[in-house]
Amino acid sequence: MSDIVLTVEVRERTGRGGAREARRQGMIPGVLYGGAQGPVSINLVKREVSKALHSGKFLSHVVQIDHRGEKQSVFTQDVQFHPVTDEPFHIDLYRVKDDQLIKVDVPIRVTGEDVSPGIKRGGTLNLVRHEIELMCPANAIPEDIHIDISTAEIGDVVKISMVALPAKVRPTITDRDFTIATIQGRGGKADVEDASTEATEDEPKA
Q1: pLDDT tens for each residue of 40-82
Q2: Which of 65, 95, 125 is where one domain is finished?
Q3: pLDDT tens, position by position, 1-25
Q4: 119: which residues sit within 8 A by CB, 6+ positions away?
């Protein structure tokens, strides 16, 4: 869980009129979903949300909301941005419990490029996936998924089965051992196309 805490207030006036009024007051309208309480219209403090977005954790970590001293854990379900100003315009939050499994995109972090024998021989890293969709406990979302290519040779392939995931964390794609990265030699165009095709095929269907 991140250390982000956002102040919220219940928005008594719903609909477009209430949302416009909230924005005039420097707030961002939103809706809180999940749990037994049902949906609740809320307002969030704009400057707090902007700071949270700049931290890089607001969209991929559980955060806390504070309503008059009462805190609860939530996950950001959706953020709508203004098409002109690109500022946050509306936010949907979802109540979660600490051990509840949630779906989240976690970025890939690569190390060992500077010592990889394949890279030293002129190979290049082809990162097929820049992030992986995982099911994680709400209180144990990893910052990133680490892959080490320090011993990788040209032609080596990094599959999801080769990655050590934290306890109770699993990929949402479970029917194949999908590719995360490859080390390609010069003229490896076909390899790039093959890897890209696999990544496309791995994507869950809508």
Answers
A1: 999 999 999 999 999 888 888 899 999 999 999 999 989 999 9
A2: 95
A3: 678 999 999 998 878 888 889 999 9
A4: 113, 125, 149, 152, 183
Task: State the Cα–Cα distance between residues 140 and 166, nearest whole angstrom.
Answer: 8
The answer to whether residues 113 and 159 belong to one domain is: yes
Residue 85: give its domain's CATH number. Answer: 2.40.240.10
> For residue 85, what are the domain limits?
5-95
On average, the pLDDT of the chain sits at 88
Asked if 54 contacts 42 with a C-beta cutoff of 8 angstroms, the reply is no
Phi then psi for residue 57, to 5 deg, are -110, -15
Query: Where do the H-state alpha helices sit in the chain?
Result: 15-24, 46-55, 117-120, 189-202
Whether 134 contacts 165, CB under 8 Å: yes
Tell me if 132 sits within 8 A of 110, measured CB to CB: no
Q: Which of 44, 77, 95 is the last residue of a domain?
A: 95
Same domain, 109 and 81: no
* The overall pTM is greater than 0.85: no
CB–CB of 179/155 below 8 Å? no
Judged by DSSP in three states, 29 sits in strand
